[in-house]
């Protein structure tokens, strides 16, 4: 039975990261279990044909769609740092978001959110100018209706909210945390959580208790409105299904983030 005051939470996943002859991820298996899809726009993965197919797949399953812009680093899958200016970041966001938005427009749908990919997500946490530029890009693209996804409890989240951006605070089911609520580097052992039961338990605790256990065994506070599972984590379909089922069993209503995050006043 659903509790009197159920917790609303979004479950998102990075989608459409195949390109050309290369197939990455298991989009068709994952899509039925998520409520929001962050679709690659060609810079780290994806191509026009994959974008079209991913939009169609998401809409067929009632999944809301957002852009997943990256640094222009197809060979490195957007996980290599680059020296970029604030204006260059805004241009990258505009270019990639615009491409995906046209596929959505042609399908009669609208863009829900923007979520930076890979190293760019981390760079925005560490560089105030880049975080500010990202927030400005989202406001210029969609005003206070378009949602920006940012690391829960992070500096980009706080700065964007202060500027009036509609923000969804993101937690991760399949990644380990440091004591400062940042993600453990992928280069370190234990950074990925590929056991479906562990990932599900972490997601449920973040959603219902507002806590997460760090890699060194400490409990820290975290407030999340959307939970991410990575499509390229080993065993991703099983992880996503386990997370979705566990959240619902815990009394959460799993809904697209536009139904979870209210626009700023």
Which band does the percent of strand residues land in?
A: 15-25%
Silhouette: globular
Number of helices: 8
Spans of at least 5 consecutive residues whose pLDDT stays below 50 are none
Question: What can you see in these coordinates?
Answer:
This protein is α/β, with parallel strands linked by helices and 265 residues long. It has a single domain (7-259), classed as TIM Barrel (Alpha-Beta Barrel). 37% of the residues lie in helices and 17% in strands. It contains eight helices and ten strands. The chain has helices at 27-30, 48-60, 86-106, 118-126, 128-142, 155-162, 196-209, 236-249; strands spanning 7-15, 36-40, 64-68, 113-114, 147-151, 166-172, 211-213, 219-221, 226-229, 252-254. Strand 3 (64-68), helix 3 and strand 4 form a beta-alpha-beta unit. The radius of gyration is 17 Å and the shape is globular. It starts with 6 loop residues before the first strand and ends in an 11-residue tail after the last strand.
Q: What are the salient characteristics of this protein?
A:
alpha/beta; TIM Barrel; two-stranded antiparallel ribbon; 8 helices; 17% strand
Task: Briefly say what this structure is.
The protein is built from 8 helices and 10 strands. The chain has helices at about 25-30, 50-60, 85-105, 120-125, 130-140, 155-160, 195-210, 235-250; strands spanning about 5-15, 35-40, 65-70, 115, 145-150, 165-170, 210-215, 220, 225-230, 250-255.
């Amino acid at each position: 039975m659903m509790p009197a005051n159920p917790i609303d939470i979004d479950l998102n996943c990075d989608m459409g990261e195949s390109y050309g002859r290369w197939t990455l991820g298991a989009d068709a298996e994952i899509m039925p279990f998520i409520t929001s899809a962050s679709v690659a726009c060609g810079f780290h993965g994806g191509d026009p044909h994959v974008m079209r197919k991913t939009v169609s797949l998401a809409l067929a399953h009632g999944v809301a769609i957002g852009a997943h812009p990256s640094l222009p680093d197809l060979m490195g899958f957007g996980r290599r740092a680059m020296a970029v200016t604030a204006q260059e970041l805004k241009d990258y966001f505009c270019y990639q978001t615009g491409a995906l938005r046209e596929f959505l427009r042609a399908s009669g749908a609208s863009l829900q959110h923007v979520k930076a990919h890979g190293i760019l997500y981390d760079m925005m946490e560490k560089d105030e100018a880049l975080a500010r530029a990202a927030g400005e890009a989202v406001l210029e693209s969609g005003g206070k209706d378009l949602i920006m996804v940012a690391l829960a409890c992070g500096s980009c989240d706080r700065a964007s909210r202060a500027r009036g951006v509609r923000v969804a605070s993101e937690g991760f089911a399949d990644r380990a945390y440091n004591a400062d609520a940042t993600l453990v580097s992928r280069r370190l052992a234990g950074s990925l959580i590929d056991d479906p039961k562990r990932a599900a338990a972490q997601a449920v605790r973040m959603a219902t208790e507002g806590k997460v256990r760090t890699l060194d065994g400490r409990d820290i506070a975290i407030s999340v409105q959307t939970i991410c599972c990575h499509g390229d984590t080993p065993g991703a379909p099983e992880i996503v299904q386990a997370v979705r089922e566990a959240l619902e069993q815990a009394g959460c209503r799993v809904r697209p983030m536009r139904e979870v995050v209210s626009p700023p006043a």
